[in-house]
Design a protein that fits this description.
75% of the residues lie in helices and 0% in strands. The chain is mainly alpha-helical and 106 residues long.
Length: 106
């Protein structure tokens, strides 16, 4: 079980890191988004994963993580945009996303 307090402390650290990097380091919003996902703050997770994609449009795992966040909030019938994110993730080399494409994007 994750220690939620430690996750919130890590969020503070990532917020400081974002300031130090001038908001230009893609891994800061990516890992901060992972933490938001873990604490079920899916809207913030989506914002962070989108920011990561905005910083690096070839970051395949960010597309996958954004799609997962959307699936959690959309339910079992994801929007076509979510399926497009999953397909983009696969296209960019994140092959683990293919399972979700097959399961959710029929």
């Amino acid at each position: 079980r994750l220690d939620v307090q430690l996750l919130y402390e890590a969020l503070d650290d990532f917020n400081r890191a974002e300031g130090l990097s001038g908001g230009k380091e893609k891994f800061v919003p990516f890992y901060r988004g992972k933490i938001h996902f873990q604490v079920e703050n899916f809207e913030r997770a989506k914002q962070d994963f989108q920011k990561c994609i905005d910083l690096d449009s070839t970051f395949a795992e960010a597309y996958h993580s954004l799609a997962l966040s959307r699936i959690v909030t959309e339910g079992k019938t994801p929007a076509s945009e979510t399926c497009a994110l999953l397909r983009k993730s696969v296209e960019l080399g994140f092959t683990k996303a293919q399972e979700l494409v097959e399961a959710y994007c029929k």
